[in-house]
Amino acid sequence: MMHELGGVSRHAGVAMAVGVVVDSDRGFAGITENVMMTGIKALRSGLPEAEWQEVVIVCDVLAIGSNVMIPGSRIIGIACESDDEPLQPLSVPCMTGVAGLVSSVGPESMVIVDADSGRVIIDPDIYSVIDYQDNSETDSRAPITFDADDLPTFTSDGRVITVSAVVSSLDDAELAISQGADSLTVYLDEVIENDGRMGEADAEVEAVEMVAAMAVSKPLVFVCPSPDDELLQLAARLSDNGGISFVEPELAPQPVRVESIGKSVSAGEDLIVVMPADVAAAKAALRVADSHGG
Terminus-to-terminus CA distance in the chain, angstroms? Predict the structure, then answer.
């Protein structure tokens, strides 16, 4: 739920990105595994700094927050709970004196630091995102874009329909995410095999971590017979990503054809599972089906 807090502007400007909590009690423990893995992947891939993930630092002490460096990440804004005076010149939008800030920001929360109006917005709704972009036309950074496929699909009676993609490889995951899949149903053994990692130690753990890093904030269902304790513990650590669960192969949901989606909606189904290449078409079919009453 969107949450707006006030504070004191210390450096003008507006920034929006995933919030990363760094405080004097937990140190770097608030930096999620997804953020760290995405940054490490950027470094390993040799991406230029301009293409690194962007983050907003959320801190309780400005001296800490203004000196943080996260591998493979560009810090584009700072929000601080205490009303500290900057000890050095700031180069990014910064707000201080934001009461209740640290406890309000969850793992992977989107944060807008609007130092022009003296606001910090946590988990903004899409209208706030659009408003932010409309007022940031001169920003040199690439805008955050939304099209119809990125948004949840609602029926006329208010039900949310989740479109999940069946994933058998990392390429499948990338395709499904690019088409706006709401969640992924991941066949773990097939992902490992297609990535050439079958039989390697820690292959399952690394595959789960990689898919979770690609699909930040999306619910993930891994099709995996009898996951071991290490996988279950990993899922618990990554649970704030959007939710991670495991299902036995015989219980895994089966993909449907796009042309049969209208019947599924009419039957009251809230989860539609399709192949990665069909995600965008499925979302379009859902909108047409609902507008025609199924």
Answer: 31
Q: What is the mean pLDDT of the chain?
A: 82
Per-residue CA distances from 14 to 89, 112, 284 (Å): 17, 7, 34
Place of tokens 């053994």: 189
Q: Where are the alpha helices (DSSP H) in the chain?
A: 33-44, 62-65, 101-104, 126-134, 170-178, 188-194, 203-214, 229-237, 261-266, 279-291
∠ CA 235-240-244, rounded to 5°: 35
At 209, is the pLDDT very low, low, confident or very high (cuts 50, 70, 90)?
confident
pLDDT in tens, 47-90: 888 889 999 999 999 988 888 888 889 999 999 999 998 888 89
> pTM for this one?
0.50
Beta bridge partners of 11: 94
- CA distance linking residue 48 with residue 156, whole number of Å: 45
Burial classification of residue 75, based on how many CB atoms lie within 10 Å of its CB (0-12 exposed, 13-18 middle, 19 or more buried): buried
CA 112, chain centre distance (Å): 15
